[in-house]
Specification:
Blueprint lengths: L2 H20 L3 H21 L3 H26 L11 H21 L12 H11 L1 H27 L1
Amino acid sequence: MSDLAFWVGATLLVACALAVVTAKSLYRAAYALSGALLLTAAFYASLGSALLATVQVLLYTGGVLTLVVYALVVSRGTTTAGPPRKPFAAAATAALVFGALASFGRSVPPARLGSEPMGGRELGLLLFQRYLVPFELLSLLLLAALVGALMVARLERAR
């Protein structure tokens, strides 16, 4: 990938991410999220990781985004965002999470030089054998988040 293509893609990715959090309509935010997810898949593909790019498109862009739109349709709630409730608390929380992730990233040892990248078969075996329980817990967490969002939408609609 050339430097120009990288910077164009990175700029588009940041623009899509900003559109997700600033969109007035939840449907427009979902479309912007699909753009961000597809651009992330393009970065994975440009780095030579076809498996991650495919999983990104099928699982996240296809699956999660379908669930988001389904939740919006089922909740029949308002599709426009109101004023931010606590923007400073949200910004402080985001900065705290970013700092925690950055410190975790610094603690990860670098990859060994000359090591071969893991293939799809090896990654699949690792994911569904060694990391099967965290993988399934993540799916339950996503399901609980969807059910919780539907419950909150129903409660707010009843008021």
